[in-house]
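Page 42, continued from yesterday. The earlier attempt failed because a stray header line got pasted into the input along with the sequence. Redoing it now with the clean sequence only.
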Amino acid sequence: MSVLIEKDGEITVVTLDRPDVRNAVDSAHARALYEAFLAFDTDDSAKVAVFHGAHGHFCAGWDLQFGAKMLRAPPPDGQGVLSGLDFQAEDDQPLGPMGPSRLLLSKPVIAAVSGAAVAGGMELALWCDLRVMEDDAYFGVYCRRFGVPLIDGGTVRLPRLIGMGHAMDLILTGRKVEAAEALQMGLCNRVVPPGQAREAALLLARQLAAFPQKTMLADRQSAYTQWDLPLPQALAQEWVRGKDCIADGLQGAARFADGQGRHGKF
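This time it went through. C-alpha cells are written below.
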C-alpha cells in the first residue's frame, strides 16, 4: 500500500506515494489514509501530523482511471465505487471518498503542498488545519471539467476558509490557483521555495508540538465547533473548554514573570 507512515519524535508524517497517478486516491488508498489518521489521533506519543505527497505532487484528486475501470467492469458482488460511503451527520468517524475528509480529529494536521493539489486533493488539503505551499504548487477544482462533484468537504470548507466570493469563483470555474494568489486569499498559510514544503511543515509542526497542548487543543476544538452556534452558546462553549485550562495558564503566567517569552519571543 502506497500510504507511508513515519514518526519524527512527536510528529507523525503521512505520505501518499503513487507517482504513476500523481498521488491520486482510489478506494483502497482512501481507506489507508483514513486508517493512518485515525491511528495518529489515538497515538498518545504523537502531537501533530504532517500530510505530504511524494515525488513532487500533493494529490491529483480521486483516481479517474480507477473510476473508469469501475464503470466498465463493475465488481461481481455489486459493491460499487460509493459502497460504504453513505453517512449521517451523527455518525462517528465516517469514511469519506478521499479517506479522512469527514473526520474531526482531536489534534492538528499540516498539509505540505507541492505540485498539484487539485480536485479531491485540494479537498484533502482543505481538511488539514494549516497548509504550507511551495511557490510552484497549485490548487484547483479541476474535477469541474469532468462533472465529478466535490463530496469531500470542498463546498463546505472552501467558503468557510476564504469567503463565498472567492469560493464561488474557484468552485464554478475550476481554475488554477497558484501559490501567491492562494496566500493572498487565505487558501494557504505559508509559501516556501520549491522542494521545501515538507521540511517547513515539519518545522511548523514542531513549533505546535512545543506549546502547552491542553490549551492549544481546547482552543482548536472550540474554533471548529462554533460554526452553527449562536454567539452566546459559542462563547459559553469556549468558556467551558477554556476554564479547564486556567491552571495551565497560571503556570504559564509564572514562567512569564520569571522572564520566559518576553517581547513576543517564542
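Notes: The chain has a mean pLDDT of 91.
Reminder to self: strip header lines before submitting.
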